Amino acid sequence: MPLAREFARRLLPALVLACACGAALSQALPAEVEAALARAKLPREALSVLVVDADGKAPPRLSHRAGVAVNPASVAKLATTFAALELLGPAFAWSTPVYIDGPVQAGTLQGNLYIRGQGDPKLVVERLWLLMRRVQGLGIRQISGDIVLDRGAFETVPPDPAAFDGEPLRPYNATPDALLLNFKAVVMTFVPERGGQQAQVQYEPPLAGVQAQATVPVAPGDCGDWRGALKADFGDGSRIRFAGHYPAGCGERVWPVAYADPKSYAARAVGGMWAELGGKLAGQVREGRVPPGLKHVFDQQSPALAEVIRDINKYSNNVMAQQLFLTLSLQQKGAGTLEGSREVLRSWWRDRVGGEAPVFDNGSGLSRNDRISAQQLAQMLQAAWASPFMPELMSSLPIIGTDGTLRRRGRNAGIAHLKTGSLRDVAGVAGFVDGASGRRYVLVAIANHPNAAAAKPAIDALVEWAARDQ
């Protein structure tokens, strides 16, 4: 991106200088922030803070432990998404090509259908349905061979969703996949019958070979812990069962759950959707590679990157961020690997931001290994402010008190666009704050402490302090 590099060449020295001024000293925190930390029984050393003009033309307003490398949690997604905007462009879209290896005769494909995954992070149920409908639009109603799923574009990441925090059923623990379908999640919708004694259970997507309980009994009572009341059994990938009841006070509810057998998810989802649309399959849905020379019949296109990063940042979608991270090396090196993408991001950082690159593990922040300082984050955000792609990055960030992960935080809605981050022992935000004076600030605040979650009121107080700059 020559234009982006020219912005960096002209403005980066000033940006680095502005942040370096704050790294040499640690200032007193605002009184309201100190008070919030005291109420939370957190030491001030738990917090790293930098507040500086977005344009880099003035020394920092506030710098506290800004040079200390900390775990940023999901704040790391800022680097992944900004780098992707500059390296891939905001109009970049993922393509999922479809091939056939035989003729179509009287509605039957005499051969196999191939689907090659290339990392699309938003191949959700609706778009899988559309892909299958496009296959049928070719005149195919029956496949005499197999449906073959090619997932070779990304390195294989061990599918152990419990590895990070022991919560294998949490959708945020889904692992990346070149053919990622619906985030490997089952979305269950519970709909009580009017005046009835049971609730219907609807499942998306339909999964081939999975026995899913269609109804659950309704019992009187408030909603409360309705998920616990269901006594769900998700441990067996071949069935979904409920030993409990659905509370009558709940109304309609939706429960997304990571599928118990992620390795078989894509095959079950494709097979289930094909059958749901009335398609017939003589063979099976299996994994394999697309042989050279096959007839390419169409591409399923993803939304543009500028739209995808809104999901990643506003709702802190981990697996989408990891898909994007692996796409960086897929596009530059021909294969999506973690180490390849780390090198792409390090190289981009040295060229675009300057100085030693932070430690990024998988691009999502769902890692105990990531390390970055408030100073480094602020330098990157100042570079983003000067970038031609600033509007796309800015519009992807949660707006305090308005939407995304900040919808319920802050007393003054709209004063800041901030990416949040939280893990056990980590809580933080980074982004842009609008001052009452009309100035715009880069703000980074990250707490690393066993009780980091208690720092959120202090961080919110800091954002409000930054906005009151008159």
Name a few traits of the molecule:
globular, single chain, alpha/beta, Beta-lactamase, disordered N terminus, 12 helices, D-tyrosyl-trna(Tyr) Deacylase, Chain: A, five-stranded antiparallel sheet
Please summarize what this structure is:
By secondary structure, the protein is an alpha/beta fold. The protein is built from 12 helices and 24 strands. A hairpin with an 8-residue loop joins strand 1 and strand 2.
Q: What is the gyration radius calculated from CA atoms?
A: 25 Å
Report the average pLDDT across residues: 92
Hey, roughly how much beta strand do the residues contain? Answer: 15-25%
Tell me, what is the CATH class of the largest domain? Alpha Beta
Q: Which sheet architecture does the biggest sheet show? A: 5 strands, antiparallel
| Overall form | globular
The fold-level CATH name of the largest domain is Beta-lactamase
Low-confidence spans: pLDDT under 50, at least 5 residues? 1-24
Describe this entry's structure for a reader.
The longest helix is centred in the N-terminal third of the chain and has 22 residues, at 2-23. α1 packs antiparallel against α10 (374-385) and α2 runs antiparallel to α12. The chain is 31% helix and 23% strand. Mean pLDDT is 92; it is low at 1-24. The protein has helices spanning 2-23, 31-39, 77-88, 125-137, 226-230, 262-276, 305-314, 318-333, 338-352, 374-385, 390-396, 456-467; strands spanning 47-53, 62-64, 69-70, 95-100, 104-105, 108-109, 113-116, 142-143, 147-150, 185-192, 198-204, 211-212, 215-219, 232-233, 239-242, 246-247, 253-258, 280-281, 285-287, 295-301, 372-373, 416-423, 426-434, 440-448. It folds into 3 domains: 2-91 and 304-467, DD-peptidase/beta-lactamase superfamily (Beta-lactamase), CATH 3.40.710.10; 95-160 and 262-301, D-tyrosyl-trna(Tyr) Deacylase, Chain: A (3-Layer(bba) Sandwich); 171-258, no CATH class. The strands form 6 sheets. A 5-stranded antiparallel sheet has the order 2-1-24-23-22, sandwiched between helices. A 5-stranded mixed sheet has the order 19-9-7-4-20, covered by helices on one side. A 5-stranded mixed sheet has the order 16-13-11-10-17. The chain is of the alpha/beta class and 470 residues long. It is built from 12 helices and 24 strands.
